[in-house]
Design goal:
Strand content of chain A: under 5%
Helix content of chain A: over 70%
Number of helices of chain A: 12
CATH architecture of the largest domain in chain B: 3-Layer(aba) Sandwich
Radius of gyration of chain A: 21 Å
Number of domains of chain B: 2
Strand content of chain B: 25-35%
Strand order of the largest sheet of chain B: 5-6-7-3-8-9
Largest sheet of chain B: 6 strands, mixed
Oligomer: heterodimer
CATH class of the largest domain in chain B: Alpha Beta
Order of helices and strands of chain A: HHHHHHHHHHHH
Radius of gyration of chain B: 23 Å
Number of helices of chain B: 10
Distance between the termini of chain B: 33 Å
Structural class of chain A: mainly alpha
Largest sheet of chain A: none
Largest interface: A-B, 21 and 30 residues
Number of domains of chain A: 1
CATH superfamily of the largest domain in chain B: P-loop containing nucleotide triphosphate hydrolases
Shape of chain B: elongated
CATH topology of the largest domain in chain B: Rossmann fold
Chain lengths: 261, 306
């Protein structure tokens, strides 16, 4: 992890990605909505508010359609950023985790070290999870600030994060990232090059993003027992995949000489 | 002498490639064993099997009385290794890399600093390893390998890519470690590197050991006719030398060059010459070079007669 954070080539693009998704895009979207307050577009937004589920519409704090639209966008529409950013970052790190050690030759040192394969595997898993989750926490804080500063005055004060978002960030995001990492690490161990591992990992991360988007919306819109259930199931799957991945890891993979498929 | 490492008919295959085939040898404890062979002979695979980084398909391996397949973590805790082309986390400093290794091997930072000082790399520890020369990387690799004071040190082509001066100093460091009673296994295809350092030679080719033993014993086995240089104040005492028992031939080249059928005959020959009145000034067995021995062994295993 120390190596990752010392590599500007690595963390500058990731910081840019996080800033784009957590700050600039929300700022732009919410500012535009604010400027449309008294236009015909605002009336169309009111139509959107009418079409949303009752549970969600009941949670809207004010009657002003433009403020409601801004609230909707801030709380519900931009929710996927909470999952896209950490997944992109963690998957990028994980895809290079094993094959990268092999390509650099540092895998040889690890293979001859007294570390168990479980320790190496979980070390890689944590080193992939922490940067993504850390950036999510920082980005989420900035996002909260942007949302409260742009939408807060229209809805009667600072309102973000909602309970759904807090559950999402604490309970759901970590296991969802861990699931993606567990799958990508297995690919990273099997691929012959880092480039191939990155390509393959995008195939894994895409369906996970789609599924987790649905989960995200569900957790935010109904932050009750079902959110806890989703979180618990996600943790269970993540633990199962991680334990299985650790068990399947072979020391030979670090040397790049494993012959079994 | 007890064996620190013992391979018994060990085989390892990668797909259709037989990297090691029925390999049998023993590395005595506290001695330098040199695995000598051309590229592709199976030396690196042997090292990897020793630590349990690779698992043998067949055969039995014992390291310090442990089986790497079963007690791999314990074996790796007691073994140090310098791989060919040692790799590091190049964006980190030498010190970061050593500290990381110290943590993995449960050593303290003092041990890391001692290791760096022993291999004279302490002045470069705060530089990023990416900027190190090949010699500096090798020194750092040696320091990293001994950070936990291993009982066995495996050195796989440790002088590859080094200039002669650095190469020589690395070999001196290996001698020093051997002098401290460590078991050392040195893999090399460079004959001059093994010369004078090997207590035990294992000649490898195509994944198996063609011959193993002390260099002198191997010389006795493969170089059938040892040569001894003799000289005396009264050279006329050598007049009937070619009639002495065990003498194959005698030639004069500054001093007297005697070819014996067995080097063990030399003490008796000297006694007879002295008793016959020879005032000897020189009795020098001409040691066969490792190069002679290597090619003689290779020739013998190809079935060619010398």
């Amino acid at each position: 992890m120390r190596r990752l954070f010392k590599s500007k080539d690595y963390w500058i693009p990731l910081m840019m990605l996080a800033t784009l998704f957590f700050v600039f895009m929300p700022l732009l979207a919410l500012s535009v909505i604010g400027m449309l307050a008294n236009t015909a577009m605002a009336q169309q937004l009111a139509g959107i508010v009418d079409s949303i589920p009752v549970d969600v519409s009941r949670s809207l704090p004010v009657d002003d359609p433009a403020a409601q639209a801004a609230y909707l966008i801030a709380v519900y529409m931009l929710a996927p950023i909470a999952i896209i950013v950490p997944l992109t970052i963690s998957v990028a790190v994980a895809s290079n985790a094993i094959v990268g050690e092999r390509e650099r030759g540092t895998g040889e040192f690890l293979a001859h070290s007294p570390l168990t394969m479980k320790e190496i595997y979980f070390g890689k898993l944590l080193a992939s999870l922490v940067p993504g989750y850390l950036i999510t926490i920082v980005g989420f804080s900035l996002y909260s600030l942007v949302v409260n500063l742009t939408v807060g005055p229209k809805v009667g004060g600072w309102f973000f994060p909602t309970s759904g978002w807090i559950l999402l960030i604490i309970l759901v995001i970590p296991p969802v990232i861990a699931i993606a990492i567990a799958l990508v690490l297995r690919m990273s161990a099997r691929m012959r090059s880092a480039a191939a591992a990155q390509q393959a990992s995008s195939l894994v991360s895409l369906p996970i993003i789609i599924v987790s988007y649905a989960l995200t919306v569900r957790v935010i819109s109904a932050p009750g027992p079902s959110a806890f259930l989703i979180g618990a199931i996600a943790w269970a799957i993540a633990l199962f995949l991680a334990m299985r991945g650790a068990g399947k890891m072979k020391r030979e993979r670090l040397l790049g000489v494993a012959t079994e498929t | 002498m007890d064996s620190a490492i013992r391979f018994g008919t060990v085989s390892k295959t990668f797909g259709s490639v037989r990297a090691v085939e029925s390999l049998t040898f023993a590395a005595p404890a506290g001695a330098v064993t040199v695995l000598l062979g051309p590229n592709g002979a199976g030396k690196t695979t042997t090292v990897r099997l020793t630590t349990g980084a690779l698992v043998a398909d067949r055969g039995d391996i014992e390291v310090l009385g442990l089986h790497p397949k079963v007690n791999g973590d314990e074996v790796r805790r007691r073994v140090g290794i310098v791989p060919p082309k040692p790799a590091f986390y190049d964006q980190l400093t030498g010190w970061d890399n050593l500290r990381f290794a110290a943590r993995i091997f449960e050593s303290d930072e003092g041990a890391a600093l001692d290791a760096a000082e022993r291999f004279s790399i302490q002045d470069a520890l705060l530089q990023e390893v990416g900027g190190y020369s090949t010699g500096m990387r090798t020194r750092l690799a040696l320091a990293r390998a001994v950070i936990h004071d291993p009982e066995v040190l495996l050195l796989d082509e440790p002088t590859a890519g080094l200039d002669p001066e650095s190469s020589r100093s690395v070999l001196e460091l290996i001698r020093e470690l051997a002098g401290r009673g460590r078991t050392i296994v040195l893999c090399t295809h460079l004959l001059h590197e093994a010369e004078g350092i090997a207590d035990q030679l294992v000649l490898m080719n195509n994944g198996h050991a063609q011959a193993a033993g002390a260099p002198q014993a191997l010389a006795g086995r493969y170089l059938a006719e040892p040569i001894v240089l003799l000289d005396a104040e009264n050279r006329e005492a050598f007049g009937a030398l070619d009639l002495e028992e065990g003498v194959v031939s005698v030639s004069w080249n500054g001093s007297v060059q005697v070819t014996l059928d067995d080097l063990n005959r030399l003490p008796d020959l000297v006694i007879r010459l002295v008793n016959g009145g020879a005032r000897l000034t020189r009795v020098e067995p001409v040691g066969a070079t490792l190069e002679q021995l290597y090619f003689e062994m290779q020739r013998a295993h190809r079935g060619e007669m010398p």
